[in-house]
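Thread amino acids onto this structure.
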């Protein structure tokens, strides 16, 4: 004689309906996913840049107060940006350089915006070891080519920001920028 457990109409021992069990698993799993999402979202959102960082993703620079032959330094994304108002002589000398004389050959026309060749805008970080070159203040040494001079290891850049002497392997980098008018640029 065999003994079987009562089925209470569902055909399942102990009276638990399989459909109810599946529903409870679904509800419990959904609640767990929602709970994990509610915990994870603030953590993920906290990794986004803050409003003050986003505000610095671009910088507008008024060029009006920069006299010919001088430059200013502005900060963009924590980097110094050199903005130089070149004289006609400096511009012509930069344009007339033979590319064969350059460590990293690049014509001046590739480093300035068309119609605004009197302005050069470069990231003011030496490409050798990341020092900040001198040359943006009128009293700074500018090296043999009249641009920028890095006193740490002697790298020299011309008025186009091209490396001319020293251990720096590359020209000063160019930030993304555009002229919004003849007297204003937007960096970034």
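Threaded sequence (188 positions):
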């Amino acid at each position: 004689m065999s003994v079987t457990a009562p089925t209470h109409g569902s055909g399942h021992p102990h009276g638990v309906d399989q459909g109810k069990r599946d529903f409870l698993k679904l509800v419990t799993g959904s609640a767990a996913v929602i709970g994990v999402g509610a915990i994870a979202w603030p953590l993920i959102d906290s990794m986004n840049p803050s409003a003050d960082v986003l505000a610095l993703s671009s910088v507008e620079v008024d060029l009006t107060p920069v006299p010919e032959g001088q430059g200013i330094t502005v900060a963009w994304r924590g980097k110094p940006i050199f903005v130089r108002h070149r004289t006609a002589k400096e511009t012509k000398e930069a344009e007339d350089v033979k590319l064969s004389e350059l460590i990293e050959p690049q014509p001046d026309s590739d480093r300035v915006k068309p119609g605004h060749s009197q302005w050069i805008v470069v990231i003011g970080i030496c490409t050798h070891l990341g020092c900040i070159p001198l040359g943006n203040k009128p009293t700074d040494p500018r090296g043999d080519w009249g641009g920028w001079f890095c006193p740490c290891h002697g790298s020299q850049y011309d008025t186009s920001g091209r490396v001319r002497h020293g251990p720096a392997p590359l020209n000063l980098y160019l930030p993304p920028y555009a002229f919004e008018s003849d007297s204003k640029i937007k960096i970034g």
